[in-house]
Amino acid sequence: MTRRREKRVLRAIALAMAALLLPACAGLPMSGDVNVGLELGEAPEDNDILFIASGPAPGASPQEIVEGFLEAAITPAENWSIARTFLTPELQPTWRPGVGVSIDAAVGSRTITSTIPDGDSEDSTDSEDETTGDVTVQFDLVANVDEFGAYSESVGASTVTFTVKRLDDGEWRIAKAPDGIVIDESRFSLVFDGYPLQYFDQDWSHLVPDVRWFPRRTSIATTVTQALISGAPSPWLEQSVQSAFPADVQLAEDAVPIGPAQVAEVALTGPATRLNQTTLARMRTQLQETFEASGVHVSQVQFTLDGRPLNAGIVKLTEDPIDSSPLVLTDDAFGAIVGDQIAPIPGISEEILGLSQEITAIDVAADSSRAAVQLADGRIYLAGNGRMDELDIPARSVPPSIDPFGYTWTVPSADPTAVQAWGSDVTPNAVAKAWPNASAISAIRVSSDGSRIAAVVTVGGQHWVVVAAIVREDGVPIELGPVKQLTRIDGAADDLVWLGSTRLGVLIPGEGAPLLTQMVGGPGTAESAPADAVALAGSSAITGVRVLDAESTLFAHAGSAWREIASGVRVLATRAGE
């Protein structure tokens, strides 16, 4: 780090500390959303860290100007106004930081070179005669965020070049720069946050999240409303979801104020006058649920037209059953762990216990009406209502997954394109366009909304965690949408589960049995699973994941550690959608 850069960082820290020590009356915000203060004794829900970068230092070299410009990516306030101070007056109004984000591995891994000699070099006298030059930055790219806020993993070397110019006052500024910003991985999630926009599924019964990344700011209600009303679902998801907002209905104002009663007032354009009550209710439900998922707390959404309120109700959504009890198979019981007992599932437990062959996987429908059971020899049965029906599938198939519409999904591990969805009548439905470039597949799981399927596939010898949209006709799965690659892992996964609607749990083989928690549309985090972990069970939340080890011991999270909750577990079963 150069001396000038050290000074900039120290000044940024000093400014931040000084801001904390200012009297309460100093620096009152004069614009932005109106927010209700905390009740007495109430704690704030978000403790965001606000990074404040420094502007250009007097006499800074071209390389230091570019370093400072890159550092200023941590301060998005006022449309990156601090970053603009590193630009020439001509470039300042035309540079577009919102076009995208390049996320690199670390600031320290960047290599910066300049065609203009540094002031401390032997050729410094030549630099005094220079008026323009190029500064090139090489960095290790980790991921990208596009102009719509969609996150994609993208690993590899990347290079950007800046043209710098000496101004009349002798100071260097950037005269040409690519649109967008570069920020390091460690600070990306502190400056940006993921906001799950909500879209309806194909029959208007479920809401499906589509995570977008925007800078953390007090006006996030406006940001997510604009993205929802004026934008569209991500390309990989669009075939299975829909928006209640018609294309010709837009925001009539540039802000979504939240009043004293926590009512979000959303002014719409003229075409909203022709909308019926069903459409308005769907629109309100979609936006309110987006606010809730994004951490924007409102009592309700109020649409207005020319200052007059529009009467909009709320639509009833299909609610997923909530049961956090682990499902397990022991030597003499199958069912949910309740206290120190195992509660059987009527119509299922008795059939499963009647099987004499070794069982390797069990997936239970959300309503507990049936279960898909896989045996050690690869055969799969549907158990329920006193019946045990065998599915006609290849011997080497991945564990089955039941969706919320009652279809049981299967696929041979060596033929990823041969996906089938079996109805309750044990009739197979071929699912087209499944994993077209994959040579092998080790796991599949359908989400609780039934609009997405996750998988771990092998493509070109590499193992990827992927998702795709499920396209249905009258509820019947007919094909998959384009594959969305989430992250590359080392080896075929030992297990795959859903942890809520926006994250996956992946048990990665190898020393330490890493447990990856991967966001669908965001980065992932890894932790050590219990030793010799062999299976997972998902949950509606990250903290609800269960892990089974090779010694038949079941574990659950206890803060950052793992605690034993049961022993003698032969099979850790899963619930549909988890």
Pick out the low-confidence regions. 1-47
User: Pairing-aware structural class of the strands and helices?
Assistant: mainly beta
Percent in strands: 35-45%
Portion in helices: 10-25%
Largest sheet data = 6 strands, mixed
The gyration radius over C-alpha positions equals 27 Å
Give the N-to-C terminal Cα separation: 47 Å
> What's the rounded overall pLDDT mean?
89
Number of helices: 8
Query: How many strand units?
Result: 38
Shape: globular
Question: How would you describe what is shown here?
Answer:
This protein is mainly beta and 578 residues long. The protein is built from eight helices and 38 strands. Strands 1, 2, 3, 4, 5 and 6 form a six-stranded mixed β-sheet that branches. It has a five-stranded mixed β-sheet with strand order 19-18-17-16-38, with no helix packed on it. Strands 24, 25, 26, 27 and 28 form a five-stranded antiparallel β-sheet that branches. The protein is globular and about 90 Å long.
Keywords:
mainly beta, 578 residues, disordered N terminus, five-stranded mixed sheet
